[in-house]
Amino acid sequence: MVCIDPGFVVPGIPENEKYEGTEVDANVRKALPEGTTIKWAKTFVASFWAMSSKIDAVLPSGEEQSYFLKVHNPGLISTRELLSVIPNNVPQVVAHGPCASKPGRAFFLAEFRDMRDELPSASDLVSVVAAIHTKTSPNGKFGYPVTTFSGKHPMDTRWCDTWEEYFRRCMKDTMEAELATQGPNLELQELSGKILTKVVPRLIRPMETGGRKITPVLVHGDLWHGNVSVDEKTKVPVLYDPCCFYGHNEYDFSMWRATRYLTSREHVDEYFKTNDRSEPQEDQDDRHALYALRSDLAVSVLWPENKDMRELAIQEMQRLVAKYGDGYEGYIAAQGKLNAAEADGVGN
Predict the structure, then answer these.
(1) What is the Cα–Cα distance from 334 to 321, expressed in whole angstroms?
(2) Rounded-to-integer distance, Cα 217 and Cα 136, Å
(3) What pLDDT score does 131 carry?
(4) pTM score
(5) Which alpha helices (DSSP H) does the chain contain, by range?
(6) What is the DSSP letter of 133?
(7) What percent of the chain has pLDDT above 70?
(8) CA 95/CA 25 separation, integer angstroms
(9) Can you tell me whether residue 7 is helix, strand or coil?
(10) Are 288 and 281 in contact (CB under 8 A)?
(11) What broad class of enzyme is this (predicted)?
(12) Which residues contact 66 (CB under 8 A, 6 or more apart)?
């Protein structure tokens, strides 16, 4: 099921944002090599929170160079973090900072790469994602040193000692933002409380107790097919628009589960051909469902016109609460009974 409201309209470029010509923001020009000539700049696509343009320029050496420019609400970019791990699979960053001509807005300038409108093969994509996950947290904690943005929504990336604490805070923040965006809903509020107090501990805490541990690794954080493409020249996968933090590697699969995206469980299975699954493995599918639930709620925040995402989220909440409503306590009790039964079997 593709949960896009029939009345949903893809954002166009507002008239006051459209531009074609040879002028660029003064701070953007300062970021280019001195003596660079702007041949042409044009706004070519918009989202609800950013405008993207292509700049064709001639460097002082006479070499022609094209750049990708995004102007958006201020927020620090995490692309540089990805570049440190997968330099061939991310557009090179040129500069970012405040706009001179548009107070309160920021720009992000990178190399322009011609890309195919297609998804890389599953094996090619997961090999790049797995490479990202080789970079571990600098302090052993979950979080990120700066605030990152999911679309226009700022993420609380303060450092946490446990994945449960970090994810619960992230989920709670998204739930509150969804209610503020879409309006109050008693059932959603009641289910949200049970998700936070029962389902999150039940599905995440077992990975960090009983001698188990999660190593916080770098994740892309917004890995849907719209942020993945194939370089026309090199034919390698290209990833962009990350919302990075250090977390559980499986979090990056949250958007690989939803049927509205071109990625699928095939990509998850491909990943685990060469990478270990987190224990307990029997919880894996519903862990991914929990991560995907946070993604569904985030979409409801970012696209207010889409009224179907809330209903989709409520349905998944109902399922998870029905299955895991006894929380972590129920898990411990069940493990105790299982251990007792196994011991009894050995004794017999």
Answers:
(1) 17
(2) 4
(3) 97
(4) 0.84
(5) 26-31, 79-83, 122-132, 163-182, 186-194, 200-204, 254-257, 265-271, 284-302, 308-324, 327-347
(6) T
(7) 90
(8) 13
(9) coil
(10) no
(11) transferase
(12) 54, 55, 56, 57, 111, 112
pLDDT in tens, 199-231: 999 999 999 999 999 999 999 999 988 889 999
Output the 3-class SS for 44-91.
EEECCCEEEEEEEEECCCCCEEEEEEEEECCCCCCHHHHHCCCHHHCC
Q: How far apart are CA 294 and CA 41, in angstroms?
A: 37
Which residues have a Cβ under 8 Å from the Cβ of 25 and sit 6 or more positions away?
71, 99, 100, 101, 102, 107
Q: 194's torsion region: left (phi>0), alpha (psi -120 to 50) or beta?
A: alpha
Contacts of 34 (CB under 8 A, 6+ apart): 60
DSSP characters over 174-220 = HHHHHHHHH---HHHHHHHHHIIIIIHHHHHGGGGSTT-----EEE-
Assess contact for 42 and 56: CB atoms under 8 A.
no
Q: Which domains does the chain have, with CATH numbers?
A: 11-112 (3.30.200), 114-338 (3.90.1200.10)
Identify the CA nearest to 182 among candidates 300, 298, 96: 300
CA dihedral for 297, 302, 304, 308, sign (positive or negative): negative
From residue 295, give the alpha-carbon distance in Å to each of 109, 171, 244, 346. 27, 9, 14, 45
**pLDDT tens-digit readout, 229-259:** 999 999 999 998 888 999 999 999 998 887 7
Q: Which residue has the tokens 């995004």?
A: 70
Cα(169)–Cα(167) distance, integer angstroms:
5
> Is it the case that residue 275 has pLDDT exceeding 60?
yes
Candidates 172, 82, 133; CA nearest to 278 is 133
